Amino acid sequence: MKGALFLSAAAAVAGSALGHAGHQQHNAFHKRGAYGTAPAPSLEPSPTPSACGCTTKVVTYYGEPTIVEEKTTTVKTTSYTTKTIEVTPQPELPTPVVTVYPTQGTYTIPAKTITVTQETTVPAATSTAVSPGEHTYGGVTTVVETATTVTCPIAVVKPTGSTVTSVIERTTYVCPSAGTYTIAPTTTSVPKSTVLVYPTPASYTPGTYTQPAQTVTATETNFVYVCPTPTGAAPSTQAPPPPPPAPTTQAPPPPPAPTKKPEEKPEEKPEDKPKTPELGGGKKWAMTYSPYTDSGECKGALAVAADIALIKLKGFKAVRVYGTDCDGLENIGRACKLNGIDMIIGVFLSNKGVEEAKSQVQDIVSWGKFDMVDLIVVGNEAIHQGSADAPTLVGLMDYARGAFKAAGYNGPITTTEPMNVWLQHGKQFCNSVDVIGANIHCFFNPQITAGECGGFVKQQMDMLREICPGKDVVNLETGWPSGGSNNGKAIASKSAQKEAITSIIDEVGDKSVFFSWTNDLWKSPGNLGVEQFWGCGDVF
């Protein structure tokens, strides 16, 4: 028998308030118009809570163990029930706990010390973000080299009335032949992106576990916070023991190699160190993210957390955020930290002027979590959109650099413009940027097909390197629309989008930020009617 807890992130958000009243300024985002790409060669405080606890909705699934084969996986669900339950944590063990704070304010979770006197196996909550479709997850996996029987602990949820208790049971499973087996997995089909939460067995070894006091700022009603696991002797997920190996005769170990005094390295001089950290990496560096609903309202913290978890699941190392509205630094930053991915943050220079942009600089300084910031982008197509001239943008970048450096940020700073602006004004930017940032969209060149997109973007980036010699180039916004009107050889369709993005990944995915995570239905249709249809998260 198996069990799973199913938490729908979208359903858990009853609504969200607007964070920064200025967020509608982003209606100006990405009005690409006639892109000038170069031609292709040829709160009030609330009471302190005494403990963590939560109430949530779950779906419980039951089914049989199944073999996971190399080519196919067959999982059958025999029945399921839906219940509203109250999850009661076990305070005597150092397990993480979810808390829902009903009102805005600052809360303090006191320090806690837990002593475990004997090894104990208990159900621990495990979560995973999934995209729409059918998924198999959980269970205990073992590899056997011959037909054998394994016995292992599994976590089971047992509903009684309106309460669910997670317990550990031991199950015996017959592996009929050599192979990899997953015992007690769960399968489900979800209609939208969600976060699945399910129990897994975790063993806590004897020792003392400590958790320092936590201060939590709830920025909205029904604010969700995961209390960190107390640290100490680390918990381990149990797997069934493999069958005992056949006895072997061991050869005596070879004599140790003679030690050699390591050579002293010459002292590194300051001028030998790179001026800026290496940006990018892998085949998928980053994804753009705007925390808005289809109607243009701000998403709540839990909806943002579900989105960021899915971006991490797709294999991205960072997310790019354009401004500071919608409590984006707090909500997106918290979700990125939980998922271990970095941020590219922005100061958006709109037609409201430099002073409003400077207030965003101060928002970032007050936030101050620079250890998770890869790059700061001051201005997004500000000259292209007519929000500033080149001297104004340079002045804002220099102001921002001084403020960020004084606050402890020593990472790279840049701005981003399309190719035509860099060709016309780029030399004025060289002393103010650490890297060259550009938004390169091959769709707006009517001579480029989807399959040629990656090569075209690479050629544009090579041309940009000549503007500020010695400085790296990053493509801060790139993609292909799935709908709207065609542009010559550039076809706006889902199949073309997939082809174009595949070619970008192959050519320059390690230096590119893909645009955008979802379709931006809150925008106006824009040039060629494509502005709402750049969502590409489902392509990856």
Largest sheet: 8 strands, parallel, barrel
CATH architecture of the largest domain: Alpha-Beta Barrel
Residue share in helices?
10-25%
CATH class descriptor name of the largest domain: Alpha Beta
Number of helices: 7
Q: What is the beta-strand fraction? A: 25-35%
User: Which class best fits the helix and strand makeup?
Assistant: alpha/beta
End-to-end C-alpha gap: 34 Å
Stretches with pLDDT under 50, minimum 5 residues = 1-33, 40-91, 234-238, 244-255, 257-275
Number of strands: 27
- Shape label: globular
Integer tally of domains: 2
The CATH superfamily of the largest domain is identified as: Glycosidases
Estimate the mean pLDDT confidence: 75
User: Rounded to an integer, what's the Rg over CA atoms?
Assistant: 27 Å
Q: Give the strand order, joined by hyphens, for the main sheet.
A: 20-21-22-23-24-25-26-27
CATH topology of the largest domain: TIM Barrel
Task: Note down, in words, how this protein is organized.
The chain is an alpha/beta fold and 540 residues long. It is built from seven helices and 27 strands. Strands 20-21-22-23-24-25-26-27 form an eight-stranded parallel β-barrel, surrounded by seven helices. Strands 1, 8, 15 and 19 form a four-stranded antiparallel beta sheet that branches. The chain is globular.
